[in-house]
Amino acid sequence: MKIKIKNSIEFNNNSRPLIIAEISGNHSGNKKKFLKLIKEAYIAGADLVKIQTYEPKDITINSNSKPFIIKNGIWKNKSLWKIYKSAHTPFAWHEDAFKLANKMNKIIFSSPFSLRAVDLLEKMKVPIYKVSSFEITDLKLINYIASKKKTNNYFNRDV
């Protein structure tokens, strides 16, 4: 099987592994750092860059009640809301990230955590999606992503 992504990356069973750089919350809430990480990932040889697309309201509620507080580990006593708030990539940053990738003739894609996130990514013309392991049981989200038919639009398969 041969798969092409946006006519710029082609791979098959005999191809080398693709290098995918995951940015996630490594930007520490700094847009300049976020864009620099994307650029440096490509310069370092990443074939693709993956980000996450969510805002805290997409995946939790702003609550300090017991079920929403981490009990142990590095985030002990922090609320889910605060953790997601500090780690998320604001929706407003996405356009610049996609423009940067396009300028460098590279591919950026994302793991969306809500239908709103998918809608935003569709406006950015994301070529592929990655479903987060946390969202693997969210059939509404998965069906919505599937309805975008990315495999029909961006992949060519020769079996």
Please name the defining characteristics of this protein.
single chain, 159 residues, alpha/beta, TIM Barrel, three-stranded parallel beta sheet, two-stranded antiparallel ribbon, globular, disordered C terminus
Written description of the protein model:
The protein has 159 residues and is of the alpha/beta class. The chain has a single domain, classed as TIM Barrel (Alpha-Beta Barrel), CATH 3.20.20.70. The chain has helices at residues 31-43, 56-59, 80-87, 91-103, 115-123, 139-146, 150-154; strands spanning 2-5, 9-12, 20-22, 48-53, 107-112. The strands form 2 sheets. Strands 3-4-5 form a 3-stranded parallel β-sheet. A two-stranded antiparallel ribbon has the order 1-2. Strand 1 (2-5) and strand 2 (9-12) form a beta hairpin. The protein is globular. The relative contact order is 0.17. Mean pLDDT is 90; it is low at 152-159.
Query: What is the CATH top level name?
Result: Alpha Beta
Largest sheet: 3 strands, parallel
CATH level-four homologous superfamily name: Aldolase class I
The overall pLDDT, averaged over residues, is 90
Oligomeric assembly: single chain
* Proportion of beta-strand residues: 5-15%
Which residues sit in consecutive blocks of at least 5 with pLDDT less than 50? 152-159
**Can you tell me the CATH architecture?**
Alpha-Beta Barrel
The coarse overall form would be globular
Number of helices: 7
- How many domains? 1
- The CATH topology, please? TIM Barrel
Helix percentage range: 25-40%
Briefly note the structural class of the backbone: alpha/beta
> What Rg is obtained from the alpha carbons, in whole angstroms?
17 Å
